[in-house]
Amino acid sequence: MKRSSPFTSPAYNLLPDKIAAVLPKLGETSENPDPTFHVKWFTPDANFTWFVAEFDPESRIGYGFVVGPFPEWGTFALDEIRTVRGALGLPVERDLHFSPCKSSEITKDYY
User: Fold this and answer.
1) Which of 21, 32, 34, 92 to pair with 6, CA 20 to 30 A apart?
2) Hey, is 105 helix, strand or coil?
3) What does pTM read for this prediction?
4) What pLDDT is stored for residue 1 in this prediction?
5) 8 Å CB contact between 87 and 46
6) In the chain, what are the domain boundaries?
């Protein structure tokens, strides 16, 4: 009997096609002082959250705001994010209830 993976929820599909289609390419929002975050990823057991503003489908590199011990703007590789596990071995999830918002709505809590 074949066992299915326990990580088959839509929350583990970090970048569905419909979200990828609306994400600006890397650098497209560089002149925008308040870009939109389109997707939120988080570790349920490691206190890290990624808010994605841009994404390059070829390199699979995203840009946005990362909340961890030292919240900061930066780039991150989707393929690496998929390998991250927290203390309990849980993978990164996509927040299914996150709605796109201006970055200032999130970053105001960290500055």
Assistant:
1) 21
2) helix
3) 0.91
4) 54
5) yes
6) 10-96
